[in-house]
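Design request, tokens follow.
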């Protein structure tokens, strides 16, 4: 081949066709044509077998070629190493996923139980409560002050059964008084029978102090108020308060005065009331 043509292939990946003198078949060598030595008559080529030299006189043709990435021969031992590594990674991923799934399941179960408990308690808080039906006062003999109060109560619609033993009465006048049910003497402070002389003569008022109140079961078919101090949805009761004991030194609520009060059950909405005494009392029993 002429020199001017061969120079154009230097540094390129080529396919070189050679034929030795006396041989019938030509051979092909592929590689990068590194250099041409015209003085000694050799060309240097970097092939897959390494760096070598070919005689220029044996070169028949030179053509550009596409270089192929040599394939790495994988031995049987290499296959085993790759398989064990993949298996280790796979097992680690399963363990991590199992731990994460366990944590998620336990957390979701805890949250579900907590949500159920909170929801049940919230429903009970919202739906339960005391409803005040009526408030009646009873004055002293001279009809100058209200000595006792009779507060008619019943559970709110849809309410759960209520425990009067856990119900507190808050009254606020010149001081704040908190009263609870007096259940030490059931015959005097809790009853379901109204005296023929009226509600305010039913209980022994001497046991009603500034720290307790009495209960009369007005509608109590199953005697739950007397036996267990509990009120069902169909029950009706009266709470009797000794006002003169609740407000020490006053002898009761004077005419024209007023005060606030609350009935606070164990669970549910409280019942609020406002008592305002008239300026004059026509009778001993006063509707407030």
């Amino acid at each position: 081949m002429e020199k001017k043509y061969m120079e154009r292939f230097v540094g390129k990946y080529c396919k070189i066709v050679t034929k030795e003198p006396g041989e019938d078949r030509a051979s092909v060598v592929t590689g990068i044509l590194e250099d041409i030595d015209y003085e000694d008559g050799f060309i240097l080529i970097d092939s897959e077998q390494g760096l070598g030299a070919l005689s220029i006189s044996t070169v028949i043709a030179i053509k550009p070629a596409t270089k192929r990435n040599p394939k790495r021969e994988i031995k049987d031992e290499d296959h085993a190493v790759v398989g064990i590594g993949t298996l280790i990674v796979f097992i680690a991923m399963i363990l991590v996923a199992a731990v994460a799934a366990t944590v998620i399941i336990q957390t979701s179960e805890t949250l579900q139980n907590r949500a159920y408990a909170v929801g049940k308690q919230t429903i009970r808080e919202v739906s339960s409560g005391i409803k005040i039906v009526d408030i009646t006062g009873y004055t002293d003999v001279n009809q100058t002050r209200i000595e006792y109060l009779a507060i008619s109560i019943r559970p709110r619609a849809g309410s759960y059964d209520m425990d009067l033993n856990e119900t507190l009465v808050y009254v606020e006048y010149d001081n704040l008084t908190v009263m609870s049910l007096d259940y030490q003497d059931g015959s005097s402070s809790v009853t379901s029978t109204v005296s023929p002389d009226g509600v305010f003569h039913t209980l022994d008022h001497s046991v009603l102090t500034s720290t307790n109140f009495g209960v009369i079961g007005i509608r109590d078919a199953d005697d739950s108020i007397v036996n267990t101090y509990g009120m069902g949805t169909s029950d009706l009761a009266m709470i009797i308060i000794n006002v003169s004991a609740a407000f020490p030194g006053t002898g009761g609520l004077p005419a024209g005065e007023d005060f606030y009060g609350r009935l606070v059950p164990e669970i549910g909405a409280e019942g609020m009331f406002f008592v305002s005494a008239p300026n004059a009392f026509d009778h001993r029993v006063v509707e407030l």
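Comment from the thread starter after seeing the answer: thanks! The helical segments are 3-6, 76-127, 186-189, 224-228, 243-246.
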